[in-house]
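Researcher: Going back to the complex we discussed earlier. I've cleaned up the inputs and rechecked each line, so this should be the final set. Can you rerun the prediction on the complete assembly and write out the structure?
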Amino acid sequence: MAMEALTMPWKQLLLKALESNSNLKHSSYFQLATIGSNGRPSNRTVVFRGFQDNSDKIQINTDCRSHKIDDLKYCPFAEICWYFTDSWEQFRINGRVDVIDGSNADPVKLKQREKAWFASSPRSRLQYLGPNPGLPSLSEQPPLAPSLDPSTGPVGAFCLLVLDADQVDYVNLKINERLIFTSRENINGEKFWTSEKINP
Amino acid sequence: MAMEALTMPWKQLLLKALESNSNLKHSSYFQLATIGSNGRPSNRTVVFRGFQDNSDKIQINTDCRSHKIDDLKYCPFAEICWYFTDSWEQFRINGRVDVIDGSNADPVKLKQREKAWFASSPRSRLQYLGPNPGLPSLSEQPPLAPSLDPSTGPVGAFCLLVLDADQVDYVNLKINERLIFTSRENINGEKFWTSEKINP
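Model: Rerun complete. Updated structure for the full complex:
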């Protein structure tokens, strides 16, 4: 088994894919799979909210009241499947998810949550004031649009998810090439990535 | 909790979504989440191969040598996440998956597998003759394109997956409506569906 030192890390490949598909609104959407407490897989579309600072940790905003929070408390692992419809590239990103809600004890994480809140559009913030997602809709009328001062910080229902990857499976269907990236730790406990070409 | 008898079953909604997005090649692609024997979720893009006969069972072709087969033997449940990029509709389809390979003891299922094989293009059949997917790529050269007589039946690596749904979560982001469909059994053991409007 040849372990090749490929020149481009997965984050660079991903940034390149995002750029070449940037004309498509849906290029920032991907599917996040988790495991429910009933032992069944669960899968939904979410929006990419960027990498955290200069790391390769992936950020997602979500509602504290959504099922995926229960899922992640039951099993903290998730896999992103991100298919780019123009460039025919797929990234499968597996890792552990940190759930950061307003009750988090770490001030640095609370700051990250606040930063994510203000980075989202005032319009998208409004959804966290809506009725409990997934519960029966009690009214035939759409609820009155709530309003929120743009300077107001994160509301209770706002939750930041941070996925720290330890494996990335990349496939490019145009050139029929597939790479697997695996994170390892060196003797100082620092994370580094190796990559290998595998059969598509 | 009002249990509404909504007029359109999920299969009709799905066929309608497929039709209104049919100009896009990727509208027949969706993400299939499973659980690996390591207890982590797994997620990948696969191709919709139609409903089985007149049922609402969803067909997928795959390679017997792929990881998802091991996953489904460990846990037979899967969730499809199918996002339609033009109509902004999402279907989350959860159910049990029947894995039908050439060693299946049921002649009816073997016939379904054969039917799925011949329904796929001769070109797509060739991939099942390729090297073991996911294993290290040993050669720098692309392998010689194998050839296959169009009348040849399913090869050993060809596997038909059939997902029998018991829950479908539908959301339409254009009108901000969400429905949950749940399958139940009547006193004769026959399957029927109920649906309810829930908060998006």
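Model: Worth noting: The radius of gyration of chain A is 19 Å.
Researcher: Good, that matches what I expected from the previous run.
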